[in-house]
Design goal:
The chain is an alpha/beta fold and 320 residues long. It has two domains: 3-193, Rossmann fold (3-Layer(aba) Sandwich); 222-318, no CATH class. The chain is built from twelve helices and eleven strands. It has helices at 12-22, 43-52, 62-70, 83-96, 121-130, 150-153, 171-179, 197-208, 214-219, 240-249, 273-286, 312-318; strands at 3-7, 27-34, 55-60, 105-107, 137-138, 224-229, 232-236, 253-257, 265-269, 291-297, 302-308. Strands 6-7-9-8-10-11 form a six-stranded antiparallel β-sheet, sandwiched between helices. Strands 3-2-1-4-5 form a five-stranded parallel β-sheet, sandwiched between helices. Helix 4 (83-96) packs across helix 5 (121-130). The radius of gyration is 24 Å and the shape is elongated. The termini are far apart. The structure holds iron/sulfur cluster. Residues 35, 38, 81-83, 86-87, 189, 192, 194-195 line the site of iron/sulfur cluster.
């Protein structure tokens, strides 16, 4: 039996591309790459894999992706999404796994001209060249509009049963979802935080201050973030769950109200006394108090002090 590896994002297009190829009697192993900005492997993915009968493997590429994100050879998309470099990285990683799975080609859910930057005909070709996978990337949703790939030329894949979907329309994909019995079809791509402007502001800050690490990226997913100085950041929990998470999973200086459950504030980096004062005033602001008695807890000591709340104007100055 022939086998293919699939770049699987958890989105509808990549799921459909797997099902189209599987329908031709080809075994598929789905590779879900975790960049730190996309959703990790989840129950939905596992349910699809079980329902439709394909294997799925998650591959953590966070460290490699950080290097791509800092300096993408082909630049960013509309936000901070380095889609071309990202695709090249994933395809290179997939290529390295072809022999492990005894697979002979790679499939993706790309649709010609669906995205302005990374899915133009010439860009698809560039991605193929850069990942040194010439003729080995099959894009089942748009294959009939593209040059035949090796698996098509060799008769492993029947080109007639592939599709000619083009552009941003969703109708053909939704019809296919119906055909395959996909209830509540997922979004086209798996959802990438680098396409969200508010998240990108926080990522840009980490890049600017040379603090882009796996741990700092994870921390961006919770709380409100403030850059209070070159070496110090303040993170404020937005609810009880985030407050608990900050307290139990991170190191640094913590500030929280002394007499009631309120926002937990975490300072990261090399923070000065002035930064701690500012963070305590931020804690008072989010506790909705004009003045507040707070606990300031470092690794070695705990002290209690009273602070006035920072003004809204100042909050906006530091908020990322
Ligand atoms: S949207 Fe995000 S995950 Fe998707 S290709 Fe672009 S950078 Fe990569």
């Amino acid at each position: 039996m022939h086998r293919a590896l699939a770049l699987y994002s958890g989105g509808l297009d990549s799921l459909l591309s797997i099902l189209i190829v599987k329908e031709q009697g080809i075994d598929v192993v789905a590779l879900k790459f975790f960049t730190g900005f996309t959703a990790p492997l989840n129950e939905n993915d596992l349910n699809y894999a079980k329902k439709f009968g394909f294997k799925i493997e998650e591959i953590d590429i966070r460290e490699k992706f950080i290097e791509v994100l800092k300096n993408p050879e082909y630049g960013y998309g509309k936000n901070l999404n380095p889609c071309i470099d990202c695709k090249i990285l994933m395809l290179k990683e997939a290529k390295e796994r072809l022999s492990k799975y005894n697979a002979s080609f790679i499939i993706t859910g790309e649709v010609l001209n669906q995205r302005p930057m990374s899915q133009k005909r010439e860009v698809l070709k560039l991605i193929e060249n850069k990942s040194t996978l010439n003729g080995l990337i099959l894009r089942p949703l748009s294959a009939k509009l593209l040059i035949p790939t090796k698996p098509e030329a060799e008769g492993i894949v029947n080109r007639e049963l592939l599709y000619d979907i083009w552009g941003r329309t969703r109708k053909p994909q939704l019809n296919l979802a119906k055909k395959y019995g996909i209830e509540k079809p997922p979004q086209p791509a798996g959802g990438c935080l680098l396409t969200e402007p508010s998240f990108c502001r926080k990522v840009k800050d980490l890049i600017e201050y040379d603090e882009l690490t796996v741990q700092n990226i994870e921390l961006l997913k919770i709380g409100r973030h403030f850059r209070v100085s070159e070496h110090c950041k303040v993170i404020v929990g937005r609810d009880e769950k985030e407050n608990e998470f900050l307290l139990n999973n991170h190191y640094g200086t913590f500030i929280y109200p002394k007499d009631f459950k309120g926002p937990v504030v975490l300072l990261t980096g090399n923070c000065s006394e002035k930064n701690i004062d500012m963070a305590a005033s931020i804690c008072a602001y989010y506790s909705k108090r004009k003045t507040l008695e707070v606990v300031i807890k470092t690794a070695t000591q705990e002290e209690i002090k009273i602070y006035s709340a920072i003004t809204e104007e100042e909050i906006l100055k530091y908020r990322l």
